Amino acid sequence: MRNAYYVTLRNTHYAIRPQTVLSNPQTAVIVLNWNGARLLPECLSALASQTYRDFELFLVDNGSIDASWLLLRDLERTERPDWMSAALPRPVRIIRNQDNVGFSEANNQVLKQLHASPGGIRYIALLNNDAIPAPDWLGEIVDTMESGSPSVGMVASTMLFEHLPDVVASAGISVHRDGVALDRGLGLSNADLQVVGVRPVFGASAGAALYRAELLRDVGLFDERFFSYLEDADLAWRARWRGWKALHNPNATVRHIYSATGVQESPFKRRLISRNRVWTLYKNMPEALLRRYASLIIRYDALVILRGVLARDRESVKGRFEGLMRLGEFTEDRRKITTCMRVHPDEMAQMLAPALSPLQAVKYRKRLNFLLHLKPEGD
Length: 379
Prior knowledge:
Layout: E1 5-9, E2 12-16, E3 27-33, H1 40-48, E4 55-62, H2 68-77, E5 93-97, H3 102-116, E6 123-128, E7 131-133, H4 137-147, E8 152-161, E9 164-170, E10 173-175, E11 181-183, H5 190-196, E12 199-201, E13 208-212, H6 213-219, H7 231-241, E14 245-256, H8 267-284, H9 287-292, H10 294-310, H11 314-325, H12 331-339, H13 345-351, H14 358-373
Helix pairs in contact: 7-8, 8-11, 10-11
C-alpha cells in the first residue's frame, strides 16, 4: 500500500496516511461500516461532494466479511477510487476491527483518538453508512452549531426515507415521560418541516448528527455496554443534565435506507432496544422523576411484555430481563450523573414530551411499518 502506515491497538488494525502537508481540519466525520459494501460507494461519494470541505473522514470497519475489504483497499491506494464521484478533501483514515464491536465502541475508537491528539477538531459528525447526505448537509449542521449559543452541543439532521425522499424518518430524538425515545417528526413532509425552521430538540439521532467535541469531553463518550441502539438517547440524557442543548436543522438532510444494517424488527434489534431502555432509564432518571412517572413507565413496559408474550416475542422480554439482571453495573454511572446535574429535575421534566397513550403507541408503530413498505409513486 502506498503512502500509508499501520498502527495496531489490541485487536484493531489501523491504516493511516500521513497528513503533514495538510492543516488540521475543524471537523471529523465518522462513518461506521459492517458488511456495507453495497452502501459505501453512494455514502462516501455524497460525503466527497460536500460543499463544506474542512473535514477529515474516519472510516471504521467492524469486521466485515463481504466485499467491503475491496473498497477499503481502493481507498488506501488512491484518493479517488473509480466508484467515488469525487475526491475527499483529505485522505481517509481507516480503522479495521477483527470483529463487530458494536456501534458504541467503534465510534469511541475514533473519539478517543481525537481526544488524545492535540488541537484542531472542534466538531464530530456521525453518519450511518446507509445514509446519503445532501451536498450542503455538513455545512448546514456546522453552521447551526457555530451560529448557536456555546451551550448548543448537538445538532440533529433531517433523515428522510431513501425510498420516500420527501417523507421524514427522523428529525432528532424526542424522549417521553415514560422513558420512550422516539424519532421526532416521523411521517411528516420535508417541506412542512422546513417551514418551521431550526428548533430545539431533546437530542440528535447518531445516524446523522453533529457533536461539539467539548460536550464529549464533559459528559463522556457512548456507553460501550449498549453495543448498539439507544446509545445516542443515553448520551443526550447525560448532555441535557449537564446543561447542553440540542437543535434540529431541517435543511440538513440525508436520505436514509432505514435499518439497512440492523434489520427492522429483527430479534437482535428487539432484544438490544429492550435491554438498553432499562439501562437508559436507570442511569439517567433520578428518583424524583422515577416517582413522578412510575405509573407511565410501568404501563408501557407491562404492555410491551404482554404483547411479547401474546406474539411470542421472546426477545423483547429477554432484553428487559437481561437489563434488570445487570443493573448493578450501572449504579456508579447513576450516582455520577445524579450528583453532577446542572439542571433541576423540574426543568428536565419540561423537556420530556407527554407519554403516548397505548393507542398512540400502536399507531406510531403501524405508521413506521407502513412507511417502510410504502412504494414510491410510479413503482
